[in-house]
Design brief:
The chain has 574 residues and is of the alpha+beta class. The chain folds into two domains: 404 residues, no CATH class; 77 residues, Immunoglobulin-like. Helix content is 56%, strand content 10%. It is built from 21 helices and seven strands. Strands 1, 2, 3, 4, 5, 6 and 7 form a seven-stranded antiparallel sheet that branches. A hairpin with a 4-residue loop joins strand 5 and strand 6. The two termini are 13 Å apart. The relative contact order is 0.13.
Length: 574
Amino acid sequence: MLAEQLPFKASRASRLAWLWPIAILGIAAIALNLRMIRDGLNGQVDLIWHVTWLQHFSKQLLEGSWYPRWLAGTNYGYGSPTFVFYPPLVYYAGTALKALGLSVEQTVTVLFSLAIFLSGLTFYLYGKSRWSTIPALAGALAYMGMPYLAFTTYQVGSLSSMVAIAWLPLGWWLTEKTARQAAWGIGLALFWTMLTLTHMPTLLICFIGWLPCIFILYRSRSWTILFNLVKSAALGIGMASFYLLPALLEKKLVNIDAMKDIGGGFRNMMIGSSALPILPLSLDYGFSHVFIHQALIILILTAAAVLLYRVDARIAREGWLWFGFAAAIAFFISSLSWPLWQLSPTLQRVQSSTRLLPIFSFQAAALLGLVTSGTLKLRNKFFKLCLAAVIALLLLANFSFAYKISRKFPALHNPGRANLEYLDYFKTALYAPHPDKLIDVPEYRPLLPSGKAVPKPVIGQPRLSVVKGQADTKLQAWQSYHRAFQAEVSAESLIRIRTYYYPGWQLWVNGQQQTIEVLDDGTIGVRLLPGSYAIRLGFQRTAALTIGLLLSFVCAVYLVYFDRQLGRFWTPAR
């Protein structure tokens, strides 16, 4: 039933009408990411972490671990429960690309390029449901060319955030589809699953913003519509419980509060300073320029929508609606909203109010598509030409911004005369990631039993060492989730295993399970009396993961059953 409304079921002429806009979006994506395609990655900020995670995640996945939650080779070999807390979807996609024969650098370049292309494609899909081809294409080009996307690609280097941005128009398109025809709730549920498994801060912000929006837009139509929308979101997020439940329940086991301090976080308040209070709460990475840039575009396009009142009053009304939503988002980005952010330490873990900028940019792109649709209806050629020129200039401003930021930093294969120290470390992550030379982010390091953060790991430490006493050890196996060694103990000894303790680790001595002793540096210790021992260490499923898997299965089964029931009782909208 849903497939009948998709373009691949249409006539040949309709399919051709879809192909040329998609081709333009593909060319635009290549142009926007040409610096990375041609000159390589730049290793800035978060990109080093994403490359490190992709290298180790893909290695363990290809070794047979279907869900590598513990990255054994990071933190100089101490390991990290990174993917207990970081969504895995992008890394599954990256592993698939690597399995096809791409290098890790080519894989990351393809993922960034695809994210830019998908941003345009999903917005075009949304725009085509509201306007004709040209306005939808104009809005798509505005969205994929937004400065925030360029900043995220070239200055911040956040791969998962990029892919999450690409999902946002799809979510709103599916929301509108579900509001008109409940069967589309299946697609909406899958959207929330994908977003949950892509980027947690984006999920948190989008869900909190999405709920009041649907109540404002649909409360006067039918409570059934609202129920279907909320139920679809709940089922979608529920299907990601195998990731989400451990991430929530086990966060007390790691130094997760360190996220609030990254880049200054919410400590970089502008309140009380000489800066304007309308600027973003956190000025890290220069996102204030992006905010001002998009705010000016929104103001210009709102004015243009109002001027189109005589052509189509609905354009003006919708323009004011988008402006109202944009003004609300602008408030929450600005320092004026700090008292509200203070109320939720959980929200502060998103690190910066600038996480809202993709939604702000989506609103700017929607306004541009709306104004383009009105411009095409103008009969006065002079005004039509003037508005067309304004639209073209705004698109050009976006692409110009992206061009400049892409050339601001040295790239791996075109460094120029820049300081290359950080690029040298980045090359280790790219070309030699597995000899225990890479560290991981501090927020995912396990806490000591006292609740304090573990000391920073030390590079070059042996896998096994005798901390106290006399013992000879012989390593037999050192795999990602399994370690084994023999110990000949001549005096009571404490043996250190270079692995951070996390509740998933279980210890067996001569076949008997034994309680793990956590040492002062957070690693696993084994205390032994004189004798001969066979020692095994294995990483097992935690209770939260087991419950999460069960809940994901239940939600998926219910969604499939729900889909079958709709086929009997729902009549497609005419």
